[in-house]
Amino acid sequence: MEDLWCVAVAIFQLWVFVVVFFIMFPAMFGLSLGVTGVYIQILVKIFEWATVRIQRGRQEQSSLPVPLHTGIIERASGSMQEQMGQLCRPQPTAAGEFCLSDAMYFCKKGLESIVDDQVTQRFSSEELASWNLLTRTNQNFYYISLRLTIIWGLGVFVRYCILFPFRIALAIIGLSWLVIGTTVVGFLPEGSVKNWLSELVHLTCYRICARGLSATIHYHNKENRPKKGGICVANHTTPIDVVILANDGCYAMVGQIHGGLMGVLQRSMVRSCPHVWFERSEMKDRHTVTSRLRDHIAAKTKLPILIFPEGTCVNNTSVMMFKKGSFEIEGTIYPVAIKYDPRLGDAFWNSSKYNMVSYLLRMMTSWAIVVNVWYLPPMTIQDGEDAAQFANRVKSAIAHQGGLLDLAWDGELKRGKVKDSLKEEQQKIYSKIIVGQNGIAPPETRSQRKDDQ
Q1: Helices (H), 257-307
Q2: What pTM, to 2 d.p., does this model score?
Q3: Which H helix or E strand runs over 427?
Q4: Calpha distance 98→10 (Å, rounded)
Q5: C-beta neighbour count of 84 within 10 angstroms
Q6: At what angle do helices 80-87 and 443-452 cross, to 10 degrees?
Q7: What is the pLDDT of residues 13-28, one digit of tens each?
């Protein structure tokens, strides 16, 4: 019995040695030993082999179901005017007259939304084109050979029995150091030394937490990194977006005050760094929020504010409407595009399905987190441009850089009904088509002009 105890103690000491000297210390200094890169390359090769093996098995067994496509319907592209010109108004009508066939366009759009609306599908995990050995219920992969089943079982053992204990230990160390370090730094007098130590503590702790997720982060165009006195805006996929961005620089966070463990973290962080936390009642007052944010960026020595204007997590395929509040502040906007590789793990947080604890456990039992981060050139509001237009311009730039769909829908639609303002906007566009205002002439009017010429 004593021999078994000695063996267990030796294994534990070896495990602690590996965690501290081969994972934690390199992470603290932003170094990598290259093990994660080799590990990911091996995984990608295994995924490619598994996909080819499954496809070959499907060809050998004709009774297997046909793979489902990720898209249900094919939507027409173009504006309302262009699509209505293709579907409606077969007979020439004068401007200012209503045509009953115009209803066909709205019927078509309504049926498309019922079958496969653009909002709901952004809040469910995207379907993969290949099997990543994380689940055996992928709708496109029914055939699994004996060898694949063995590999899947080995994968479960590696993820839960080897990787998961390492990741839990690193997460506990990182969060503990964050609370202790920021609390200690908070007792120092204000000055450059306190600011330097605060940034050092934040960077170190976030890097340890990122290593606890086996995160491989590729930063592009670092010359465009957000600078002090500015506002960093990014698309939002998961709560760990903060950890991903904070591995390359420190930010001042903006958010609502919470209780529990999150509240402990917030209270300790704000002692050493001027994060902007709001009470629930203050979050509903736009003027209060805008005033405090404006005061923050007015001090050019303070860290850039990190804001996710979507206000909710989207499933790594699209960028949804940006709230205009952060664009009403007269300041420099630093856009950042974040795109996760879905093959190694699903980073999207479906808050309606998983609470924070279960989500983090899913992340820690996935293969790894691989993400690309693009820093875009700074942007400022242009003459004659309002906050909403500025927000849309920034959103389009982020979507283009990250290869994401640029959607105009508000992400809050997953929790509530469509706002009247969105309905009124469509009504205004249609009314302009009818009467030909602002240079928008109905399709038949344009055809009449060509005939006259």
Answers
A1: 260-272, 280-283, 286-298
A2: 0.77
A3: helix 420-435
A4: 84
A5: 23
A6: 70
A7: 777 777 776 777 777 7
